[in-house]
Design a protein that fits this description.
about 400 residues, alpha/beta, Rossmann fold, 8-stranded mixed sheet, about 25% helix
């Protein structure tokens, strides 16, 4: 990639439920001010789902081209929201860089295909929780919006008022909301539900979450257990808990759900199915008109009755919302934040016509999936062929 300034490519996302785009006119303009970038090419209509016109990209200095083949031709870097499909891979030059939310736990054979194509790929969901990476943190930027939208969706379905209202005709009691999981999405859900006037409680397996929950004015509920002291990974995520812990947790939830009007499920464990926190028997005890919003539906669901992409109404009148791609339901805001995350990640790599990689850098080391024709991330190494033996075996 030396000897010339670089081309950055942004294609239209191919998934039907993906309206976001990986660059905005704001970030295009900033990229073109970098001395290492010669041009930014955007596929026609790439920003339509996020309300961005082709003319806005052109005004920012981008070239708008009619098809992905033209956009990717000669590109040094491709920005993506989701992993590009296999048919798009041959159009990227060898040694090109692909950056996006590639969902490596579900890439299956596509990861090996990227490696064979000679691509250097970075999956930004794997960013380490370090201060320097905060501006690049795609999970935080998108989860914030998801937590907000979950409460707005619940409020739109809820057939009663959220805040307490005192009127001459009498008092309307406030709604009660339970947020399951106090990560970024959960904390934003708590804050949003509180702003709308609900009485909010929240739960998380990590004891450290208590202070954050209470700082937002919500009540923390949780299982008191020595195991919970070890419930947080080094990266700040929740661990999968033991069978005994889950049993005690289920007993707690069974009693709590009976008195809740709104339930927001945000609990996820990286690389594993979402923890099942609400079973059918619990739903059957909830009040008619109650709402469950399951943000984990695409990963198995926090609720047993969730159906990804569907709105389910149970026999006892509980509505369960399991929208796909909830950040994409706020595509303009989600794209603006995501594009800034990508800009922050790529800018340090851009030189005077070169891409500079320091493979000892903790951010690059944590996020690189493939380079030099191989899958290099230790979590996603391909399985050894049948009959292969490891060191120390006989």
């Amino acid at each position: 990639m030396s000897g010339r300034r670089l081309k950055i490519a942004i294609t239209r996302e191919r998934r039907e439920d993906e309206p976001r785009v990986a660059a905005t006119p704001e970030t295009v303009s900033k990229l073109l001010r970098n001395e290492g970038v010669a041009e930014v090419c955007v596929e026609r209509g790439a920003g339509a789902g996020a309300g961005i016109l082709d003319s806005e990209y052109e005004a920012a200095g981008a070239k708008v081209l009619p098809d992905p083949v033209a956009v990717l031709d000669g590109a040094a870097v491709q920005f993506a929201v989701r992993a590009p499909p296999e048919e798009a891979i041959p159009h990227l030059p060898r040694q090109a860089v692909l950056v996006g939310m590639l969902d490596p736990y579900r890439l299956n054979g596509l990861l090996e295909t990227y490696a064979e194509a000679g691509l250097t790929t970075f999956s930004l969901e794997l960013l380490p929780r370090v201060t320097r990476a905060q501006a690049m943190d795609v999970l935080s930027s998108q989860s914030n919006l998801a937590g907000y939208k979950a409460v707005i969706d619940a409020a739109a379905e809820f057939e009663r008022a959220m805040p307490m209202m005192m009127t001459a005709a009498g008092t309307v009691p406030p709604a009660r909301a339970l947020v399951m999981g106090a990560g970024v999405a959960g904390l934003q859900a708590i804050a949003t539900a509180r702003r709308l006037g609900a009485i909010v409680s929240a739960t998380d397996v990590r004891p450290a979450a208590r202070e954050q929950v209470e700082s937002l004015g919500a009540t923390f509920i949780g299982v008191e257990s020595a195991e919970s002291e070890r419930a947080e990974t080094e990266g700040g995520y929740a661990r999968e808990m033991s069978e005994d812990y889950r049993r005690r947790q289920a007993e707690l939830f069974a009693s709590e759900l009976k008195r809740q009007d709104l339930v927001i499920g945000t609990a996820l464990v990286p690389g594993r199915p979402a923890p099942r926190l609400i079973d059918a028997a619990m739903v059957a005890t909830m009040r008619k008109g109650s709402i469950i919003v399951d943000l984990a539906a695409e990963h198995g669901g926090n609720c047993e009755l969730s159906r990804p992409g569907e709105r389910v109404v149970t026999g006892n009148g509980v509505t369960i919302l399991a929208h796909r791609n909830v950040p994409g339901r706020l595509a303009a805001s989600a794209s603006a934040l995501y594009a800034r995350n990508l800009l922050a990640f790529v800018t340090p790599l851009l030189g005077d016509g070169n891409l500079r990689f320091d493979w000892d850098d903790e951010i690059l080391a944590a996020t690189v999936l493939t380079r030099d024709g191989a899958v290099v991330h230790p979590r996603f190494q391909p399985a050894p062929p049948p009959g292969a033996t490891g060191a120390g075996t006989s």
